[in-house]
Amino acid sequence: MNLHEYQAKQILRTGNISTPRGIAAANAEAAVEAARELGGVAWVVKAQIHAGGRGKAGGVKVVKSLDDVRAVAASLLGRKLVTLQNAPDGQPVNEVLVEETLPIARELYLSLLVDRETERVAFVASAAGGMDIEEVAHATPEKVLTETCDPLLGVQDYQCRALAFALDLKGDAFKDFCRLLPQLYRVFVANDLSLLEINPLVVTADNRVLPLDCKMSVDDNALYRRKSLAELRDDSQVDAKEAAANAANVNYVALTGNIGCMVNGAGLAMATMDLIQLEGGAPANFLDVGGGATPETVAQGFKIILLDPNVKAVLINIFGGIVRCDVIAEGIIQAVKEVDVKVPVVVRLEGTNAELGRKLLAESGLAILAAESLTQAARLAVERAQ
Ligand code: ADP
Ligand code: MG
Q1: Range of the domain at 344
Q2: Is the pTM above the cut of 0.90?
Q3: Once rounded to an integer, what is the mean pLDDT over residues 238-254?
Q4: 22, 41, 129, 272: least CB-packed within 10 angstroms?
């Protein structure tokens, strides 16, 4: 689950990390009020969306008068901001962050993430920070430095110094940086983050080091024990179908094809998507109804699939291992009756009580196409979708 920049910075502050002073605002007048409270003669007004690339897309503006704060806030709020990271749909700007400006001498890149290969938290840093880090990583990977942390020891002083030297920091900036890394590590672990990205981490004109931007993602699997973070969920920033799936507790990922998929088990769901591709089609989503699917979860999953206007056929592929096929069939029948389904539905049931399941579907009087095998099911779905 992603957080907004202003929320991420508040969390950094709980770890005693200095950040630029800033106040979030949901309307232009509140933005002006925020600027007045911060004082000074210049401010940055930053659109708050769950995506980076805002600067290049006009979502981050430096202004020098309260009138300009009002004008920029008004122009950003209430519209969708499209950046390279969330194109083509963009995300709605419901809040802006009004922040003091800092005199920037250098822009560095620093992030913490879970390195899956080493199964450890790693720091990734680069002297080439700012708005083009993706390009840097792609074209000049040698400019990206990594330090992997031992889970028992956390980040060690020598690792901080190694990165500080590599980033060519001196004096106060060197000290700030070496103090910052263990603080970030503690924030990362204490909040069960999966990503903490600071781009840019700036060296100011007076040689201090501060995070100017901050992107945080919380591990979804830890939200049950991070209740205060879970409350920061902002469904306006995620795909409406994914938000509905999250509320219904089904694993759904929206994709761009036209065949809706409902499958039990992530592995089988992946295989189903592969077969659809093999038959020349494209899946509209990934959906794993889980091992313990009930008629209700099947019905919910079905409704979520059909929220997508691109869906031209639905392929249901269930292997009844723990879950019984007749239970799944009931769920399908219930959903098809409740939702006015206009697209062809292809069903492949295999495993426990498969025959009973097929019989229920055949006797339901609904226009459901039964497939004998997975390949046939994929072929049928692709045919019907065209
Ligand atoms: P994004 O990564 O979405 O483009 P950032 O928060 O990194 O947004 O802001 C983009 C750029 O705007 C930064 O690289 C920096 O140059 C400038 N900027 C952002 N916040 C401030 C600030 N408080 N003071 C001065 N410049 C800023
Ligand atoms: Mg940034």
Answers
A1: 239-385
A2: no
A3: 86
A4: 41
Judgement on whether residues 115 and 92 belong to the same structural domain of the protein: no
Does ligand 1 come within 6 angstroms of the Cβ of 200? Answer: yes
Whether residue 234 is contained in a domain is answered as: no
Catalytic residue selected from 95, 147, 197, 350: 197
Q: Active-site residue 355, yes or no?
A: no
Q: Which of 5, 6, 109, 330 is catalytic?
A: 109
Write down which residue in 81, 100, 119 finishes a domain.
100
Task: Please state, in angstroms and rounded to a whole number, the distance separating the CA atoms of residues 24 and 39.
Answer: 15
Q: Could you tell me the distance, in angstroms and rounded to a whole number, from the CA of residue 215 to the centre of ligand 2?
A: 8
Tokens 């690339």 appear where? 53
Would you call 60 exposed, middle or buried from its count of C-beta atoms within 10 A (0-12, 13-18, 19+)? Answer: buried
Active site residue 109: yes
**Do 177 and 82 belong to one domain?**
no
- Tens digits of residue pLDDT in 12-50: 999 999 999 999 999 999 999 999 999 999 999 999 999
Neighbours of 342 (CB within 10 A): 8
The string of pLDDT tens digits covering residues 193-215 is 999 999 999 999 999 999 999 99
